[in-house]
Amino acid sequence: MALKRYDLNIGKRMESIELPEEHVVQVIDGGSVSKITDIKQATLEAVRNPIGTQALSKLVHEGDKVALIVSDITRTWSRTKDYLPAVVEELNNSGIPDADIFVIIATGTHRDNDDEEKRLILGDALFARLQVFDHDAYGSEANVFLGTTSRGTPVYIDKRAVEADKVILTGGITTHLFAGFGGGRKSVMPGLAGVETIKHNHLLALTDEVGGGVNQETYLTKIEGNRVSEDMCEVCAFLNPCFLVNSIMDAEGDFVRIVAGHWYDAWYAGTQEVMKLQGVEAKAKADVVIGSSGGYPMDINLYQGMKSYAPAQMAMQPNGIFIALLDCPDIYEPPSFFDCFRFNDELSMEKELRAGFTIPFYIAFYMYCMSKQFTVIMVTRPENFDAVRRTGQIPAATLAEAWTLAQKKLMAQGKAETYTVNIMPHGVNTVPMFK
């Protein structure tokens, strides 16, 4: 029985484990891709050779009032300020002066952004040149009713965007826990939507019947048949933006692709690029998954580190065991997430979620449900143990201790000699793909 050592990041250090090689199915980890070195040139090439529509210069005309939709301060990873100047330059060269361009920050139900945050989103130059507005999801006068989707979602959209002659979406594309992927239509729903629209759409991530929990057809990377995503697309179609520019970033936060063109076609092409970046062909699901989010800063708190849980679940057998390595020096942050673990049972938590759906609440509910469906052991700091137990997980101080707990569970399942293991060193940025 040959033992092999596996090293995984946790916080700013490493944890190691030695496992019999014959029990390890696969180390599921992505490869490297080439980075964009000239962001301006890549942006101009994208908007001049778009996907699914004409070049941006042919879609806008002198006299048009153009609304640029940008992500808020919580999405600065998409680095809007680095590629948006090239988009504005292309508009200027196409007969659209700065006076006819304005920016709407797609806050959804998030708070407004202060001036310093707007500078971080747009960069100093564009912030000084263009009018900038925050979307208001709660203002009855700020949003216009456009109709109802096939799933009954009332469509209220930012009045400024509706009244613009042309709307251009920007943002970034990555995987999303229940919408499949972010980016694209999410700039409109929830970005520019009224609170009633957002609540009705997001509740589609749960089953129709109370007590059913998470809708199993709304999950990471799924687009077709994902009713949350499809409803978002219907909402976006009411506004029908004329163009889209989205970035795709690697795990280091560098540009690997910029996609531009039709608001759906270009976004969809971008999702396929994300899968080339994050998707890894997996051999088989395993009884145990040992996963790291990649270490600091991805595991600075549970809210961030939890992004590795859905990919791990995809690589795990039913009734499997997940060992998560998360340092979490700020485990209670943000309070809007951790305060959701105040319930003693799934049903009470679900009812409260349905009454006041928020993304942090849904993520907490997903984690709580996962801890009931699987055995989840979290390697973390001893001072976090009480907090970990609140989430339904089992705490452990070291990977060796977690493996001992996992072995006892495997023995109880009659798998002491037959167990299989998948290892995911960068779970936040890895998606197992099965044929």
TrEMBL record:
Pfam families: Lar_N, LarA_C. Residues 283-429 form the Lactate racemase C-terminal domain. GO terms for molecular function: lactate racemase activity. It comes from the Bacteria. Residues 11-207 form the LarA-like N-terminal domain. NCBIfam families: Ni_dep_LarA (NF033504). This is Nickel-dependent lactate racemase. It comes from Phascolarctobacterium faecium.
